[in-house]
Amino acid sequence: MAPAAAHRAALVAGLALALPAAAQEAGARVEVPSGQEVRFIEARRDAGAAAGLTAGITWRFRFVAPAISRVGGTVNLDTAAQDMEHLCNRFALPWLPQGEAVGQIVIELADREVEFGQPAPEATRYFEAFSVQGGRCVWEGF
């Protein structure tokens, strides 16, 4: 198994108690307020926060949402933003390890699966950043 795949498998296994079994698997559908189809891709833990932006761990949760496509999509940015806040509060927060100093949660929606960290000009992608305050996600914006 490649190192990245092994890390991802260990990460998912280590956090398996945080979510219902169906939501833990890559490709699993996740319910959002708009009703659009959203599928979970992966969660990534970044120990090194971006310089000066956050203190603590940054968690990135990546999802595919075909309806946000700029070509033929039916979900606009405002609706997607509401879904992203929901994903942060209802999906990401329960996933996080207890007691970990989380500085930021980043939610990504893309109209197609895109390799992490790679440019994809043909894809529609939205990112929202949240801090965790009082057990809730608070929008930080980029």
Automatic annotation (TrEMBL):
Signal peptide start-end: 1-23
Pfam families hit by this protein: DUF6497 (PF20107)
InterPro entries the record matches: DUF6497
Keyword terms: Signal
Keyword match Signal: yes
Organism superkingdom: Bacteria
Protein name: Acetolactate synthase
Native source organism of the sequence: Meinhardsimonia xiamenensis
